[in-house]
């Protein structure tokens, strides 16, 4: 009896509040009021008056409201503001109540935007609070304009921060300064534990103060937080300093501008134990016994940067030259057996066993102590030396030799990655000539390459995405420099970045990363307008560089620039990138390729497929082969070498002359899903080909999904396809996509009647987008009604007048 008594007690309490509210409302409305032209409005119900009073005094009544019975609480929930509605969520769930409809209504009324049709919203509360946080941070919403958003007892940013999983920073870094301000310290601490994805959109030039705020923000959210993904979108003219700042912080580096620690958390960590030697090797890369040209170039670049820092110090340090031995000792090597590596990140104190430097000046002193005994006067050190292309220093003896087969190339790649002049240990090299000869006069200190021996290493992200962010040489060098040791990176997306010949830097850095112990990179998405390498050669190079890759998506919109007059004749790719040797076996499970125009060499594609025995999903977009026989060679390779293949997709390919090859595919008993999207399947001999295709499908018991959008199937083709579901068929097809196939309502109705006549049970999903169903809406609705008895139908309202060309082609 305890529960009913408690229920009655809470109900009586609620009635008392209702009575007091009614008396107050009655006294307020006792004064005569003028009636409007439309007549007096109906007075609010007693229950609504009570609910409003309770909502207005939740500060003192909250615990009592939480204890109300479910039926009463359900009527009060829509009257609460967003803060108390969020706080009462757990109690409402325990009483079997849902607030999703309330949050959805709040979204429609306050946010006034419609979610994408591709987005599946699982929690409207989290979606609303996340969007509310972003609007408040940017100042695009006025919380005082609506009583549901305004409550003096709550901080909008703090209350909504724990729901933020994704944060977008736009334009001139709005919001970064506010988040790192002292009043919002708790907000930033909450974000550090809740935020997973950080996005940058349409960034503009920013001032130094904004960049310093962003630096602190990234340090808290990435180095001490839970952010695992950083994405940059639509940055037509990237600001070098800001771009390099985002990259280096995402990679886990903190370059102190002074001896102070980044934050109080770092101060607490510094009082604990220091990282061990093994941990440092894991973070910054392992070592191997020799250095190659790229490593010496990277060491010289960083030594030059330290030289620039020394010039800015009050006391000039007389050092302008550095020996090859000391340059090597300034940077440890990464563990890989490849012939060329890019910018290994291990520090000089790891290689020599000396004590780790505590600050940038200490690192400079260490570099100075290892210079040659022949030094220039201090006065000459203060004068900047003009940079020039690398050449052997005047007056130096010794033959110039190079390693590797690309010794004769003198393009930008060669100058940055290959130091011309393999010298004996101890022979001097001029820093300006070595480090920046290929940069045509650009100051090496402006390259932005982080001096890793002077940087602190923290936690780094696992997913990096760059969409439409043009990469200059400076930006590409920095990115590749960081990638070569970014062992925590699991997914990399580079989309329309204008890499050009920088793709060779990228391949070398990926090869170096693959040789690092603990490399986690498993997904690479690469797309661009042009590529200096044909797409199949580029694919082979990537697969060789990253044999542990699981997902590879690569797209090139236009043919290779190899014959482009703007590209130097000697700018060809190094031989170790496009070697003709057989590709070793890899771990690819998903391969997606988007081809430029022009016939593709089938043997190159077959060589990739043969080495990908674990392939489960293959997608070819706009692929063109010289003959149907070449396409048949690819299909035969798939059957022999890719026994695990489950999903196969072809898009925008002319397969009108490859009907026998299509039948060969449909008879493959390992495939579970096949897509022929806009492949012109039925352009030739449809009357003969359709029965053959249906017969092949009726005998295939493993095929679960067939997608045929954009193949001009028509009514006749649809009715022929209905025979796949006949009683004598062994097909187990459960997903069928016949979008954009010139299907009319009468043909769809007849298709539905045949399925009913054969008594076929529910077979899954049927997609009908962009067909001519608007020509007879009544018949179309009847057809869809009948089809929904056997399958889940997905359709749309589409104006078929847009498809006049398709209509003419099927007349």
From TrEMBL:
SMART domains, sorted: LRR_RI
Biased composition, class Low complexity, residue ranges: 354-385
InterPro entries xref list: Leu_rpt_41, LRR_dom_sf
Pathway linked to the protein: Protein modification; protein ubiquitination
Parts of the chain that traverse the membrane: none
Feature: compositional bias, Basic residues: 386-400
Region span, Disordered: 270-289, 304-406
Keywords: Leucine-rich repeat, Phosphoprotein, Repeat, Ubl conjugation pathway
Keyword check for Secreted: no
Record-level GO cellular component terms: cytoplasm; nucleus
Single GO term (MF): identical protein binding
PANTHER family tied to this protein: LEUCINE-RICH REPEAT-CONTAINING PROTEIN 41, MUF1
Subunit structure: Part of an E3 ubiquitin-protein ligase complex with Elongin BC (ELOB and ELOC), RBX1 and CUL5. Component of a probable ECS(LRRC41) complex which contains CUL5, RNF7/RBX2, Elongin BC and LRRC41. Interacts with CUL5, RNF7, ELOB and ELOC.
Purpose: Probable substrate recognition component of an ECS (Elongin BC-CUL2/5-SOCS-box protein) E3 ubiquitin ligase complex which mediates the ubiquitination and subsequent proteasomal degradation of target proteins.
Protein name (Swiss-Prot/TrEMBL): Leucine-rich repeat-containing protein 41
Organism of this sequence: Mesocricetus auratus (Golden hamster)
